[in-house]
Write a structure and sequence with these properties.
With 635 residues, the protein is of the alpha/beta class. Helix content is 48%, strand content 8%.
Length: 635
C-alpha cells in the first residue's frame, strides 16, 4: 500500500472530526436536520484549518444514500466516491487555475443538467478570490438563482479580495486557527497511530510552530518523525533543525544579566559556528524573552511557554524586572526588522547582545519620576535655606549677585517657598498634559510698577558690585563684582561729551532708522540717569512688537553707561550673537532715547564654579549622590 501522509490520512470525514471549528460543525448539523439548505456558502479562514474538508463533509451529508443526514455513513457508494474524489456530481475546481470568464461560462452550461446519481450537484471552488472580475460578474446570476439541485461552496484564504456582490449572495463561515492544546492532542493521537513515541515538549514545539494550522502541524510532524527513528524528542529537533534550545539560551542570557559581554559574544560566536542561522537564533531569543516576560507576570501555562516554566533560568528571572524584559523583547523584535537592510546581520546581533549586558542599569522614565519626587522635599529645604540667606543679606544691605536676587524673587513669587527646578516632561496639569512653560515664560515688565523696573536694585546701586572691564584681566570667581568708582556712571545725558560716531556707523544708523517704522518700537520717556529704568523701559518697548529681542535683553545684566557706550553682559554665546545682529536697532532706539549717538556694547562672560565640595549642604550632597551627578556652582 502506498504511503499516505498524515495530513491526508487524518483528514476529517465527519463534522465531529473537525478540530477547533465547533461552531461551523454545529451550525451545519442543525441546518441539515431542519432541511434549510442554502444554495451558496462562502468559507474563509487561514490555511489548513479545515475549509475544504468541511466542504467535502457537507457534500457527503447532502448526498449520502441514508440522508440528507448530519452524520454521513461513509460506506455507501456516494460517500466513497466523494471521499475518493471521483464523484461526477461533486466537482472541485481550483480557482487559481480556472480564472477566466470562459471557465465560469462552462459552469453555467453544466448546471442546466441535473445530477448524475446523487441528490445534489455540488461545486467546490477553492481559492475563489483568484477569479477575475469578469468571471465573478458572470457568476453572479447563477449563484443568485441556481437550480434547486445545485449548491455552490466557495473557499478562500483572502476574504477581502472577494467582491461584495458575491459575499451578499452566500452564507459566510469564518474558520479559526486551532488552539495549541488541541493541535498537540491531535499530534499525540497521530504518533500513537503510527507507533511513534513523542515527548510532550516536542509535540508542544511542533504545535506552536504550526501557528494553529492542522495541515502544517501534520506536515512538520512527518518531517520530524522521518529523522527521529521512532522516538521524537525536543533534543533531536533542536540538533537536527538547527535550533537553540532553552538550556543554551539560559547560558547566553545568564551571561548578559551578569554583564559579562566578553563571554556572551564568544557564546554567540559558538552558536554561529555550529551552523545556527541568525534569523533562527533571533527568533529563538525572542521566544525565550516572551516566555520569560510571561513567567515574570505570573503566567506559567505550558501551552503558551512551549515548555515547563521550571526550565527557564531563575537567575534571569531575578535579575531583570518586567520593564527591562519588555525593553529586551522590543530590542529583538526591532532587530529582526532591521537585519534585512543591515550591512551585516551578525554585527546587528552582536550589538544587541552587547546592549543586553548593561540592561540591568536601565531605568524607566516612570522610575526617574519617582526618584525626582522622592528627592524633591530635600531640594525644597536646601533651596529654601539659600533663599533665606539671600533675603537676610538684602535686608542687611549686603551686595548679592543677580542670580541670588533671582532666587529670592522666585521664592517670593511662589508664596514664600523656595524656587524648585521643574521637569516639563514629567509635570502634569489638570488636563493631563505638560505645560510648555512651567514658570509662565518671559513677560514684559510693567513700567508703572516700581517693583518691576528694578527699584530694589536701583536703591542699592551705590553699594552694588560692578564687573571689571573685559580687558582688565582674567575673570575671577563667579559674579562678585568690584564697586565702581564714584562718578564713573553718568547720571544724565550731559555727563559725557558727545563723541563722533565711527566711519560708516552714522550712515548705517540713518539707514536703519529710515527703514524702521516709527510705530514699530515706540520710545517711552524715562529718566536716562537711572540705568535700571532705562533697561526696564527698553525691554518693555521692544516687547510690544519684538518679543524675541525683548527676551534677549531680559537675559542680560549689569547695564552701565560708560561715556557714549552702553555696556551690558550676557552669559549665553547664542544670545551674544543675536544681540550683535540687532545692534543697529538698539543704536536707533538709544539715539532717540538719549538724543545722541550711544553705542550698544554687549559683552559675553562665563560663570565659573566657585563651590568647595566640602562646603556643600548635606541635602545637596544627597541629591548629587542620588542622581550620580556633580555640582558646578551654587549661589
Amino acid at each position: 500500500m502506498a504511503y499516505e501522509v498524515t495530513a491526508t490520512r487524518r483528514r476529517p470525514q465527519r463534522f465531529e472530526d473537525l478540530v477547533g471549528q465547533e461552531f461551523v460543525a454545529e451550525t451545519f448539523r442543525n441546518t441539515i436536520a431542519s432541511g434549510k439548505i442554502a444554495h451558496a456558502y462562502l468559507f474563509s479562514g487561514p490555511r489548513g484549518c479545515g475549509k475544504t474538508s468541511t466542504a467535502r463533509i457537507l457534500a457527503k451529508a447532502l448526498n449520502c444514500q441514508k440522508g440528507p443526514t448530519a452524520s454521513p455513513c461513509g460506506e455507501c457508494e456516494a460517500c466513497k466516491e466523494i471521499t475518493a474524489g471521483s464523484s461526477l456530481d461533486v466537482i472541485e475546481i481550483d480557482g487559481a487555475s480556472n480564472t477566466s470568464v470562459n471557465d465560469v461560462r462552462q459552469i453555467k452550461d453544466e448546471v442546466l443538467f441535473p445530477p448524475n446519481s446523487c441528490r445534489y450537484k455540488i461545486y467546490i471552488i477553492d481559492e475563489v478570490h483568484m477569479l477575475s472580475t469578469s468571471a465573478f460578474n458572470a457568476l453572479l446570476k447563477t449563484i443568485e438563482e441556481p437550480p434547486p439541485y445545485v449548491v455552490f461552496i466557495f473557499a478562500t484564504t483572502e476574504l477581502q479580495k472577494v467582491p461584495a456582490t458575491i459575499k451578499s449572495r452566500c452564507q459566510q463561515f469564518n474558520f479559526r486557527l486551532v488552539p495549541v492544546e488541541k493541535v498537540k492532542e491531535q499530534l499525540a493521537l497521530a504518533a500513537q497511530e503510527s507507533g511513534i513515541k513523542a515527548d510532550d515538549e516536542a509535540l508542544y514545539w511542533i504545535a506552536r510552530e504550526s501557528g494553529g494550522s492542522m495541515r502544517d502541524s501534520y506536515t512538520l510532524f512527518d518531517q520530524v518523525a522521518a529523522f527521529s527513528g521512532g522516538e521524537i524528542t525536543y533534543e533531536k529537533i533542536r540538533d537536527k533543525l538547527g535550533l537553540v534550545g532553552v538550556d543554551r539560551l539560559n547560558e547566553l542570557f545568564g551571561l548578559c544579566v551578569k554583564g559579562d559581554s566578553t563571554n556572551a559574544l564568544l557564546k554567540l560566536d559558538e552558536y554561529m559556528q555550529n551552523g545556527v542561522s541568525i534569523e533562527q537564533l533571533i527568533s529563538n531569543c525572542t521566544d525565550y524573552l516572551r516566555s520569560v516576560l510571561l513567567i515574570k507576570n505570573g503566567v506559567k501555562k505550558e501551552a503558551l511557554l512551549g515548555q515547563s516554566a521550571e526550565r527557564f533560568s531563575a537567575e534571569v528571572l531575578d535579575a531583570w524586572n518586567s520593564v527591562q524584559i519588555e525593553r529586551a523583547l522590543g530590542l529583538f523584535m526591532q532587530l529582526y526588522r532591521d537585519i534585512r537592510y543591515s550591512l551585516s546581520p551578525r554585527y546587528e546581533f552582536e550589538l544587541a547582545v552587547s546592549r543586553l549586558c548593561w540592561l540591568s542599569e536601565y531605568v524607566s522614565p516612570a522610575d526617574v519620576k519617582k526618584a525626582v519626587d522622592a528627592v524633591k522635599p530635600l531640594l525644597d529645604e536646601s533651596v529654601r535655606a539659600s533663599a533665606s540667606v539671600a533675603a537676610s543679606a538684602v535686608a542687611s544691605g549686603a551686595g548679592v549677585s543677580s542670580s541670588q536676587a533671582g532666587i529670592s524673587s522666585n521664592a517670593g513669587a511662589n508664596g514664600g517657598g523656595a524656587y524648585v527646578p521643574q521637569f516639563a516632561a514629567l509635570q502634569e496639569d489638570s488636563g493631563g498634559q505638560s505645560h510648555p512653560f512651567p514658570d509662565g515664560g518671559a513677560e514684559p515688565p510693567d513700567t508703572n510698577s516700581a517693583e518691576n523696573i528694578g527699584a530694589d536694585v536701583a536703591s542699592s546701586w551705590e553699594d552694588s558690585e560692578q564687573p571689571p572691564a573685559p580687558d582688565e584681566g582674567e575673570w575671577q570667581g563667579g559674579f562678585d563684582w568690584q564697586p565702581s568708582p564714584e562718578g564713573q556712571v553718568s547720571t544724565s545725558s550731559e555727563a559725557a561729551p558727545e563723541q563722533a560716531a565711527p566711519l560708516g556707523q552714522t550712515e548705517q544708523t540713518e539707514q536703519v532708522e529710515s527703514d524702521l517704522p516709527q510705530t514699530e518700537v515706540p520710545v517711552s520717556s524715562v529718566d536716562t540717569g537711572d540705568i535700571q529704568k532705562v533697561r526696564a523701559t527698553m525691554i518693555s518697548d521692544f516687547s510690544v512688537n519684538e518679543p524675541l529681542i525683548a527676551g534677549l535683553l531680559e537675559r542680560t545684566f549689569d547695564w552701565k553707561l560708560e561715556g557714549d557706550n552702553l555696556v551690558l553682559y550676557t552669559e549665553g554665546s547664542f544670545d551674544l550673537i543675536q544681540l550683535e545682529q540687532n545692534m543697529a536697532k538698539f543704536s536707533v532706539y538709544l539715539q532717540k532715547l538719549y538724543g545722541r549717538t550711544v553705542a550698544f556694547k554687549p559683552v559675553h562672560v562665563e560663570r565659573k564654579p566657585d563651590v568647595t565640595l566640602a562646603d556643600l549642604p548635606v541635602q545637596v550632597q544627597l541629591l548629587r549622590d542620588t542622581f550620580k551627578g556633580s555640582v558646578l556652582g551654587m549661589n
